[in-house]
Specification:
alpha/beta, OB fold (Dihydrolipoamide Acetyltransferase, E2P)
Length: 288
Amino acid sequence: MNSSVRLIRDFCLLLLWGAFVLWMALTHQLSTYLHPSLQPYTVAAGVLLFILALFSLRDLMAKKEGGAACAHDHTCCHGHDHQVEAAATDEDHHEPHHHGEASAGFFPLTFKTLLLLIPLAIVLFGRGNHFTISTVQNRGVVQDLNNLPAAKKGSTPAEVPPGKIPETTSGSMPIQVIDLLYAVQMPTYREDFEGKQVELIGQFVPLSTGNPKGDRFQAIRLFITCCAADAKPVGVTVQYAKPLKVSEMGWVKITGTPTFPMEGGRRTAVLIANKVEECPAPSEPFVY
């Protein structure tokens, strides 16, 4: 691969990656892949890639201008015509494998280019940030916050000034799965939820064990410490008497009352639901 083609390739790749990162940021899609604390650095990297693309374009233009100047310099080129022809003849005679070497050099560069384009294709045309029920089954649902040292609880009613507690249109208090897991371990935090009407959004995971009456399922969210690759399912048990027709990993909005019974010798969280309905995925599908 000659230097001009390499410069064109570098410019296109840098421009493409820079535009892709900034597009993800402007369309608020970075939150589906990265922890919020890492997103500013990613945006800065996108800007840097754009700047590097401009430098690559500058080198490409300079090379073209230099080549054009040499093409018009007949004094420089004319005197060496016979020497160039003789050298080319001699090279062809003694190095018949030259084209094979060029092909060998071209292949690694093409392979590297494909490696840089594959992640873009996965994100644009695939489902790189979507997880199936197999992911949950393989990784297991975390219900013990000791396995999530980076998790942070939200604000409870006791911690929020009067009149500032957010409510949904139904009058229920919006919470996260993480909040109920904290309540399991913290009695003072638990008291703030007992008897309250709450609203929780999660993904539907059917319970095949520990569900003799068939009226329970798990509502899970994917917790990330750094990025989507380290996502861990966290969940709580939901009890709902009515039959449900929800696909596995479908998003549901649950309205109900949290309880914290002792089951199997340990404290657990069970959300007694009075309403469960399908809903769109939230703008930020992960919890942190």
